[in-house]
Design a protein that fits this description.
Blueprint (H helix, E strand, L loop, with lengths): L9 H22 L3 H14 L22 E8 L2 E7 L1 H7 L14 H17 L2 E9 L5 E13 L2 E11 L13 E10 L22 E6 L2 E6 L2 H9 L1
Antiparallel strand pairs: 1-2, 1-5, 3-4, 3-6, 4-5, 7-8
């Protein structure tokens, strides 16, 4: 009788997945500087369980009562518009205006806006978690440093909601007395809670046509190389 090899079988694979997830959670917790970010990520991770992304209706605001003043929800309207559906009272006070209904991509420079659009697309398409740091400015040169965490949620059978927190690293005396009208992105990263991005995102090399099926065609003194393909190639191979 041959003893089964250690580390094989479904139970071993499940154990490896749990270990990987636990290590990722520890590393993510170290990466985040805000308690609000850690609280949101831990709760979102528990709700999703073994799934990639939980549903919007599974989120219970009462479980996040301690961080609701810094929390918000975005709706993906289009690739150019991520609208605030809700925003915590503390955020609205700090930014000097009601954020609800405004576009998250406003108030950024062109380069930062482009980067954010790409990151938000990865969150929506692949179920990633986004971690961002930026500086916000009012009428003066002094900046307020913020950390933002965005986690994806399923609404209407697709990921078009984002639950987030936005926490100020420091709170100067003038914060809330003048609107924060300009933002500058400092750092950004995507977190894959299960360790790797979806396989669909893996680079696939371009397959070039077989040069042996090419023929030279001359039209008006110009030469073109034509490759057989599709039905034409199939007919050629069967002949």
């Amino acid at each position: 009788m041959i003893a089964p090899r250690l580390g094989s079988g479904p139970k071993a694979r499940d154990g490896a997945k749990r270990t990987t997830r636990a290590l990722i959670e520890i590393e993510v917790s170290r990466t985040m500087k805000s308690d609000s970010s850690r609280t949101l990520y831990d709760y979102w991770n528990r709700v999703r369980g073994t799934r990639k992304v939980p549903r919007r209706l599974e989120i219970e605001p009462s479980r996040l009562a301690a961080i609701l003043p810094e929390a918000f929800i975005l709706e993906r309207v289009s690739s150019e518009s991520f609208r605030f559906r809700l925003a915590g009272t503390k955020l609205c006070e700090q930014f000097g205006r009601e954020l609800r209904g405004s576009n998250f991509l406003d108030s950024w420079g062109d380069e930062d806006r482009f980067t954010l659009k790409r990151r938000l697309a990865s969150i929506a398409d692949g179920g990633a978690v986004g971690l961002f740091e930026f500086e916000a400015y009012g009428h003066r040169d002094e900046a307020v440093h913020y950390e933002v965490l965005l986690v994806p949620l399923i609404q209407n059978e697709s990921i078009d909601r984002f639950l987030g927190t936005m926490s100020a690293r420091e709170q100067p005396a003038w914060l809330g007395r003048e609107p924060l009208e300009r933002r500058q992105l400092l750092r950004h990263t995507l977190i894959w809670p299960d360790g790797l991005p979806p396989k669909a995102n893996v680079f696939r090399p371009l397959v070039l046509p077989d040069i042996r099926d090419a023929r030279l065609v001359c039209v008006d003194r110009r030469s073109f190389r034509v490759y057989a393909g599709g039905l034409a190639r199939q007919s050629h191979e069967e002949s």
